[in-house]
Amino acid sequence: MNNPDPFFGFSQMHVLMAAVGAAVFIAHLLPRILFKRGASSSAIMMLAGLVIFNLIPGMPAIPDPTVSPALWETTSEIVVIIVLFATGLQIDDISSWKRWRPTVRLLVIAMPLTIVAIALLGWALAGMTAAGAVLLGAVLSPTDPVLAGDVQVGPPLEGREHPVRFTLTAEAGLNDGLAFPFVYLGLIIAAQGSDASVWFAEWFTRDLIYRIVVGALVGAFIGWLLGRSLFSSWGSAAIEKSGPGVLALGAVLLCYGLVELVEGYGFIGVFMAGLACRRVQKQHHFHKRLHAFSEAIEHVLTVFLLLLLGGVLPALWPALDWRHTLIGFGLILIVRPLVGWLSLWRTGLPPGDRLIVSFFGVRGIGSIYYVGYATGHMEFVNEDPLWALVAYTIFASALIHGATSFLVERHASRPA
What we know:
Distance between the termini: 75 Å
Helix content: over 70%
Number of helices: 17
CATH architecture: Up-down Bundle
Structural class: mainly alpha
CATH topology: Na+/H+ antiporter like fold
């Protein structure tokens, strides 16, 4: 009887699996072989995605984010909420205002200034509409807790949190949620026009004040309840016999869902939940297991998303021109370093710390979620260049900040 399958037939799925596996292996080992140290693999992963999906014949088509943003929105949303919860868990010491002062300055000064600067560049240089420019500023304003892992604090219970790592970690943990009011502002301007007298009061009270406060309070309360449950006498006995997986996922999804149901910002909620859960029993060894599992899920989903983002880059090329290049590199090399340096004035950080914190404003997965959310809820005139600019800014940030992340490692190894 003849075998219907050719002896050396190639399955499309098997080729894809082999290519992805090789990409992951190379991306994580290559920096350690070439530079004899750990380094960010994000840029290499995106380049691998570009090669796999554009140069290897027969690969499946990637959903175009300008046409089908739902996949991008959902995947990036899951990645961000998991990593935000893990980020809250991993911070060991939040005890003094001195430690928080630089982070607060970055959130209340540097972030709004970044939004304004990028919005003006988008409007004046790239010819975007007012709504598109505001949305661009909001989407690119938050630093990323996912791709910036190499410059943040380590896992729970490690201690020795250098002020540079603490500031970058706390900023990334909070500003993903704080960008949301300005994303809503872009949507409101697109729907109702630029006359602020029509919508400002409602936007300010609901989107800026209410949702931030509710997200922080409800998230912290859920995190406190979770901690009290896990570290009670009966909870401690239960977690010793069970793996952390279901608990980590359950806690993240429960918190995010409840905060969103009461119209708070879920990103702020899950970070505050991780932070509050950690405070209940700050030294309990289960935090390491909970964080490790959350980090493992995050890494898997991030690899998937970065490969897709790299694969879709060539399709976005036609929407880019020199003006978008100026905006992207201007954000990374001029706007963020400048507003970061100014906002950190008189915070007590030494000049070297200020310079490092100002420069390492890594852009990443949160920006994908925001542009996917916005373009999925409303049609914008500038959608194609918006997606293209965000994707290429993330790639440039991964390349520049990944190649220089050793500076943080070297600087933060010195006594604070």
